[in-house]
Design brief:
By secondary structure, this protein is mainly β. Helices cover 5% and strands 38% of the residues. The strands form four sheets. Strands 1, 4, 5, 6, 7, 8, 12, 13 and 15 form a nine-stranded antiparallel beta sheet that branches. A two-stranded antiparallel ribbon has the order 2-3. A two-stranded parallel ribbon has the order 9-14. It starts with a strand and ends with a strand.
């Protein structure tokens, strides 16, 4: 199965800083002892050697408007997949299996996923919802207590069943970005670190400092005025391994009325479902880059009684 979409709505910076102007407003380009242009100074005022003032580096609307965004039909997406399913009933067991192998790519996965306004291709990456492999199984088994214990009272041995949903899936892509404004554009979400290779994924972030990938695969080497070469999403975060199980007992009270007892476990085997690692690169938070700080819910058990009529 494959789909493609063109001219999707995204938001684009409409008043970015001019990196060339910023680079000219330092050293001999400004009056000695006055402010020199650099990251996060797109709205500052600078003084030329001849005494003239430059009111920020933003354009085309200038400093007074700060940064802002407009909607544009510039985004594209593609999705290709292999899908298979199997449904079967065999005696007391019934199940439905589903498997999808897929790849989703775009340059703006959601409305606030800002596109690179200078080169749309620089924003092309895995979609933030891409999942290479996704396997889901749902199943119900009617426990034949009434046949095994044929002489026991029927209300005690009839109506027992076990049901569950099991999922194994690839995690979602890790979003990589830098918060240092090295591009001198003053645009949130477009700066990236530089990828130098040697990426390593640690399958068990419970070890050591809870790291999912090695942060020394990224650095800042690009000169100021450039975005950085790392793709915004090119590898996946922690996957899913989850079992939800339930034990059910239906008891007929009288015609048209029955009582159902339910004992259910969510994340039955208490498998750690780690959330995405920190993908924000900055000098002040370098130690946190690549680490996981949270996880999904632990095992949850619940009991319930329902009267159905």
């Amino acid at each position: 199965m494959g789909t493609a979409a063109r001219k999707l709505i995204s938001i684009v910076e409409n008043n970015p800083g001019d990196p060339n102007l910023c680079l000219s407003l330092r050293g001999d380009g400004v009056m000695p002892g006055t402010l020199q242009c650099g990251p996060f100074l797109e709205d500052a005022t600078f003084t030329r050697p001849d005494g003239t003032s430059v009111y920020g580096t933003r354009g085309p609307f200038g400093k007074a408007f700060g940064f802002g965004y407009y909607e544009a039909n510039w985004a594209n997406s593609s999705y290709n997949s292999l899908q298979a399913s199997l449904e079967k009933r065999a005696g007391d067991l019934s199940f439905l299996l589903g498997y999808t192998s897929s790849k989703a790519m775009d340059n703006a996965s959601f409305f606030n996923n800002r596109m690179n306004y200078e080169n749309h291709a620089l924003s092309k990456s895995l979609s933030n919802f891409d999942s290479t492999h996704n396997f889901v199984a749902s199943y119900t088994y009617t426990i034949p207590f009434d046949r095994t214990f044929a002489r026991a009272p029927k209300p005690l041995v009839q109506g027992w069943s076990i049901a569950g949903i099991t999922r194994f899936a690839t995690g979602f892509p890790v979003g990589i970005f830098a918060s240092n404004d090295r591009s001198l554009r003053g645009t949130s979400g477009l700066d990236r670190p530089d990828y130098v290779g040697g990426l390593q994924i640690y399958d068990d972030p419970r070890q050591g400092d809870h790291r999912w990938f090695n942060n020394d695969a990224f650095t800042i080497t690009s000169p100021q005025g450039q975005f950085g070469n790392a793709n915004q999403r090119f590898f996946h975060g922690p996957g899913f391994n989850n079992w939800n199980l339930g034990l059910h007992k239906d008891t007929q009270i009288r015609e048209g009325v029955r009582v159902q007892f339910r004992a259910e476990l969510f994340n039955a085997f208490n498998h750690a479902q780690f959330n995405a690692p920190n993908g924000r690169y900055s000098a002040s938070t370098a130690s946190a880059f690549g680490r996981i700080f949270s996880a999904g819910s632990p095992r949850i058990a619940q009991l319930a009684v329902k009267i159905l009529f």
